[in-house]
Design brief:
By secondary structure, the protein is mainly α. The protein has helices spanning 2-44, 52-60, 67-102, 114-128, 140-161, 167-191, 194-204, 213-232, 234-240, 244-249, 254-276, 282-294, 298-322, 331-349, 351-354. It has one domain: ABC transporter involved in vitamin B12 uptake, BtuC. Its main location: membrane.
Amino acid sequence: MTDLHTEALTLAGRDAYQALSVRRWIVLLVLVVGVCVALVGDLSTGPASYGLRDVVRTLALPAEADAQMRVIVWSIRMPSALMGVVVGMALAIGGAQMQTILNNPLASPFTLGISAGASFGAALALAFGVALIPMAGDYIVAANAFVVAMATAFLIHLASLRRGASIQMIVLLGIALVFSFNTALAITQYFAAEQAVAAIVFWTMGSLTKATWPKLAITALVVAVTLPVFLRRRWQLTALRLGEARAASFGIPVRRLRLETLILVSLLSAIPVAFVGTIGFIGLVGPHIARMMVGEDQRFLLPASALTGALIMSLSSILTKIAVPGAVLPIGIVTSAIGLPVFLYLILRSGRDIW
């Protein structure tokens, strides 16, 4: 009787796990469909609005489409729309991994100062032409953003290695870094020329309008390189959510895993910020929405976070073009308006768990 009972429990557990896996795959499929629909909607909105059916026909059969519509959809709107999708993926993946390695629900590249550091590095190039990497050429802004973001990530990592370092200390350090870089950015604007100040202000609001195919290719390459690395370490990252001591007992090199993850997160944060400006809260909101839908299993959390971030960015891009008739709002304003209430909700709901 005991053996039969154990076997029954095993079969019931297996059936429950399979049902959960099926539900998670369905969620991912729904997110894929949502991103595709939002992308088409983004391509259809603008100064000249087109029907979704006409846009789909232009995408599927460009040779048979109207010449003007083909140019608008493929040459003007497509780079910006795809850049929104890829940037959303990059920031959401980075936020999910920051929350994983620090075991903190409020951790993200934006809230821990990595995005602010990237912004300051890019501002140095925009204001004074300072190149932190020689021979950066046309990508001096991206190179500067990456260097400062990487330095910020290393500083956070070194702080986490200190004896007695706690989650609250790392979070407070991130907050201090945000204010420090914002102060440095203000000083940079004060001494910069008027034209450079205008460029910095517009850039810090975030915008997809200056997206190009080469910038899109670089950002997509970063996502294509980092996402498989995280997926290969999915079990280590999932175990890390159980706590550093528990993960170490499984033979996981926690310190090395945290350092490598921070390096990749800084890359995922710096490149989008350098190309499209400061985009806030995507790395915070996207992973939390994904976690509510699929749980902590990195096999599903990573793709769900990427798709959720892409969906939020695409929907935000649509809002930037329809909120004010005849104008395109900076997308950073829209994402902040969406993310700030969620941020406050997370603080009020889990304030004790944060510390």
